């Protein structure tokens, strides 16, 4: 093993699945929150952190982007995990018995069609794998969990219905974070650069800052804003662009961005995942 990789959730969570698929040489370290997973990397308890950032059905994972700039960590990789949602039940239980299905607030809307069709009530749990563990430890065969097949294996549950997600391309994107950056790699599918910035308080500053990417032919795949410091006047942006900071066009675009901002910080430079272009 090359050390540990921290993820949010319990063993059997989709973050655990992402770790197993992407970093199989690292031992999974379950953490109760994204913040604690980041802290595990920061304090050396884990070498890497697997952090979910967005889902193709649900959208952005709440609060994660506001945690990233203050984490002190660097994005060194990305992973796209196909999320198959399964209804798990106690050994010997039948689908017709299930009245309640427990799952994280993010996962419930992703299989709302199935739950409605079978008159099953969705119940919020703090974690999908915890929901599986709770069902396994309980005695009520009417209670089910929405989780991975990995969770079923770990907690000894039956899979009562497989792949019940509403969208057949349901995918979660994770980023892999480490204490030190690695700018030396070049990926077979190109490179990605993540950054945060805050524009200067001048008219059309954001428009002008974005102009450098357009004129230099740099594709921006993500731009999100969020407030900082509890004030409506301080807005920070998280952006992802295709390319490496050493590429001539990216370097020019970042120089122009720097002129119209009062803060620019690289969050990571990493190879684009193969599934980025097929998910």
Task: Outline the structure in words.
This protein has eight helices and 15 strands. The chain has 279 residues and is α/β, with parallel strands linked by helices. The relative contact order is 0.17. It is elongated. The longest helix has 12 residues, at 248-259. The protein folds into three domains: 4-83 and 171-178, 3-Layer(aba) Sandwich (D-Maltodextrin-Binding Protein, domain 2), CATH 3.40.190.10; 86-161, 3-Layer(aba) Sandwich (D-Maltodextrin-Binding Protein, domain 2); 192-266, Alpha-Beta Plaits, CATH 3.30.70.260. It has helices at residues 14-22, 34-42, 64-71, 112-117, 128-137, 149-155, 205-215, 248-259; strands spanning 4-8, 27-31, 48-55, 59-60, 74-82, 86-89, 100-104, 121-125, 143-147, 158-161, 171-178, 191-199, 220-227, 235-242, 261-271. The strands form three sheets. Strands 1, 2, 3, 4, 5 and 11 form a six-stranded mixed sheet that branches. Strands 8-7-9-6-10 form a five-stranded mixed sheet. A four-stranded antiparallel sheet has the order 13-14-12-15, with helices on both faces. The mean pLDDT is 91.
């Amino acid at each position: 093993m090359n050390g540990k990789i921290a993820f949010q959730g319990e063993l059997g969570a989709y973050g655990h699945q992402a770790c197993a698929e992407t970093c199989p040489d690292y031992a999974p370290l379950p953490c109760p929150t994204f913040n604690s997973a980041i802290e595990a990397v920061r304090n050396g308890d884990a070498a890497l952190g697997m952090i979910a950032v967005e889902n193709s059905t649900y959208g952005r994972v709440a609060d994660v982007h506001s945690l990233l700039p203050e984490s002190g960590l660097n994005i060194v990789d990305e992973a796209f995990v196909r999320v198959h949602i399964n209804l798990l039940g106690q050994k010997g239980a039948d689908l017709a018995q299930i009245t309640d299905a427990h799952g994280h607030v993010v996962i419930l809307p992703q299989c709302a069609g199935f739950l409605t069709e079978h008159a099953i009530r969705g119940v919020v749990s703090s974690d999908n794998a915890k929901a599986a563990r709770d069902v396994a430890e309980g005695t009520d065969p009417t209670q089910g969990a929405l989780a991975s097949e990995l969770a079923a294996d770990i907690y000894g549950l039956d899979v009562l219905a497989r792949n019940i997600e509403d969208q057949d391309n349901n995918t979660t994107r994770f980023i892999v974070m480490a204490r030190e950056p690695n700018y030396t790699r070049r990926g077979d599918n190109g490179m990605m650069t993540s950054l945060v910035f805050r524009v200067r308080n001048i008219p059309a500053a954001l428009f002008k800052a974005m102009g450098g990417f357009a004129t230099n032919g740099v594709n921006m795949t993500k731009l999100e804003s969020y407030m900082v410091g509890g004030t409506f006047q301080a807005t920070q942006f998280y952006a992802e662009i295709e390319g490496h900071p050493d590429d001539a066009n990216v370097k020019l675009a970042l120089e122009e961005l720097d002129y119209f901002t009062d803060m620019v910080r690289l969050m990571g430079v990493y190879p684009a995942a193969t599934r980025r272009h097929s998910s």
